[in-house]
Design a protein that fits this description.
This protein is an alpha/beta fold and about 230 residues long. It has ten helices and five strands. It has a five-stranded mixed beta sheet with strand order 3-2-1-4-5, with helices on both faces. A hairpin with a 2-residue loop joins strand 2 and strand 3.
Length: about 230
Amino acid sequence: MNWLTRLFGRGPNLTPAQKQRLDAWRRRPEVDPKVPFERSRYVVVDVETSGLNLAKDRLIAIGAIAVVGGRIALDDSLDIVLQQAEPSTKENVLIHGIGHGAQRAGVPPAEAMLAFLEYLGKSPLVAYHVAFDRTMIGRALDGHLDIGCRQRWVDLAYLAPALYPDLANRYRALDDWTRHFAIGNYARHSALADALATAELLLALRPRLKERRAESFRGMELLERERRMRAGAY
């Protein structure tokens, strides 16, 4: 939200209880990115949206699952649909399967984003093609809570090729890597199902991370940066 909006007081209309919850989240301690993988909690995330336009389309759903102590924690997950005043097109629904009724009956956006922050805590985030997820989540946080998305992220779309350079020219999509590691996906284009597949990919990369002595979030960040530089993405 820009400074003019803040100046003229047209920001999100949060209840006192919601403001308290947001303040409580802000006070949570930051996470040390150098803590080893086996003592960390990472949140793997995927989103569904009304389209692919980063500037205009809306966040419809967030799916997230935690990797805790080097294991996928199925009981530590989030699957939430944001209430839409105007549901997305029928063509869009065919992609993610979240119908008009489910979109209208979703969680009010400010409440949904608060729930996401409370689930996330200050854990670092992992995704495949981070730019899209980070932008859509960031826009929703800014628009509904007036808070930016400043969490640390690692992008497996760069980390996987950094660890398997021999496959980098052939494997571009998440589906390519999941097929390579024989990772199933129970509902492709479901945010939670895609987050789970991405989490399994993260664990499949762990032996190579160990070989590279990069078994921490900071180690993964450095490998991603190295790959981005080689790919000319910086």
